[in-house]
Amino acid sequence: MIQFLLNQELRSEHALDPNLTVLNYLREHVGKSGTKEGCASGDCGACTVVVGELQTDDDGREHIRYRSLNSCLTFVSSLHGKQLISVEDLKHQGELHSVQKAMVECHGSQCGFCTPGFVMSLFALQKNSDAPDQAKAHEALAGNLCRCTGYRPILAAAEQSCCGKQPDQFDAREADTIARLKAIAPTDIGELNSGDKRCLVPLTVADLADLYDAYPQARLLAGGTDLALEVTQFHRTLPVMIYVGNVAEMKRIETFEDRIEIGAATALSDCYEALNAEYPDFGELLHRFASLQIRNQGTLGGNIGNASPIGDSPPLLIALGAQVVLCKGETRRTLNLEDYFIDYKVTARQESEFIEKIIVPRASAEQLFRAYKVSKRLDDDISAVCAAFNLRVENGVISDARMAFGGMAAIPKRAANCEAALIGAPFNNAVVERACAALAEDFTPLSDFRASKDYRLLSAQNLLRKYFIELQTPHIETRVTAYV
């Protein structure tokens, strides 16, 4: 059984189909049809809901953290122990919520289909910021698409509703909601079981290891932003899933003198602060990683584990010399991330083995790290090419080089010939041109609907040139730039 709050209503579910998304649960099982399906792939934001989760600050203060999610990519099992809020829950005692009023008064809605999603994104923005600036508003709304308004009135609604906000019914009953969430906090393995399909929800790494050993055919579910597409887009059935999002040990970020250890189930939006503090380019790239709804849900371990050749984080992590800790039963092994990827969607992971955490070396003054993403749109788009460069230059000579690319091969991969052309050479234009030529020996990219092979190779070479120019003239630096 799993338990969660549907606004303030306690829901206990056991026999539901584990392949059921939160979107369809709301619309088909509880009659809340305000949440819309636009794309069923997490691109349009019409299905946005907000999930509240109990959090304890470093000072011991308990509060509820509200986050926007794409309900079309969220399986119901991930709600275990949390609070689900949909657009119907905002109106209180006959009065519209302040974000709804702002959308009305600023004329932020025309056909209205996308409006519930925008309202929920604004609600999450209001809850998480006292006075958001324009950049925060753009970030919060970048995952919501509208074909009617041109966005200006919606941004005006964001400013009106979030600047000088007043307490609402959720603030008034926060203490009661906290108490109710504590009362339903999971204490044992949860489960949804429809007879022929099941999803198990462990709470510890040990429980996860035991379950995965017992069900090696199970699909591991973290954020689900990729896995859910098998259900919503390809109409496949997932007979057994194991949801790892309630394993607290795998959601920790610990900083040591020489490294950062990030639990594999840590949401990308939670990774931002630690990674941005060490590597600003990593932080910039995370801002452009899909939408906020996806970053609130997708995990760093999932982005590695699905072994996509165009995943954004692996090239950066490889260039930084990151490692993964793999767990199977009581056995753990540490593997350099570059050795984790073997071929397209093929990894070094053994049966019943899972990524427990990612180890990222801390930055040093000698490192010259930059990252770049080439995509057709600035926000919410997949890379055509993602490049990460990490050099050490001593007395004008390159002493070490780690260059990694996504979108250039069947796996995220280092450019060995390019690195060899750089190491031991002076960091000058002639050497960079030699290294650019070597990239043609490292990669034979494919052509697809995102980019041709020639475009990809030329882009990779130009990014290396860009890296060199920016290091020579930092005042013209434009990191993680999009190219149209």
UniProtKB/TrEMBL annotation:
InterPro entries per record: 2Fe-2S-bd, 2Fe-2S-bd_dom_sf, 2Fe-2S_ferredoxin-like_sf, 2Fe-2S_ferredoxin-type, 2Fe2S_fd_BS, Ald_Oxase/xanthine_DH-like, Beta-grasp_dom_sf, CO_DH_flav_C
Record keyword Iron present: yes
GO molecular function: 2 iron, 2 sulfur cluster binding; FAD binding; iron ion binding; xanthine dehydrogenase activity
Keywords (A to Z) from UniProt: FAD, Flavoprotein, Iron, Metal-binding, Oxidoreductase
Name under which the protein is recorded: Xanthine dehydrogenase small subunit
Keyword GTP-binding found: no
Domain FAD-binding PCMH-type: residue ranges: 192-365
Superkingdom in the source lineage: Bacteria
2Fe-2S ferredoxin-type domain segment(s): 1-90
SUPFAM superfamilies the record matches: 2Fe-2S ferredoxin-like, CO dehydrogenase flavoprotein C-terminal domain-like, CO dehydrogenase ISP C-domain like, FAD-binding/transporter-associated domain-like
Lineage summary: Bacteria, Pseudomonadati, Pseudomonadota, Gammaproteobacteria, Pseudomonadales
PANTHER family: XANTHINE DEHYDROGENASE
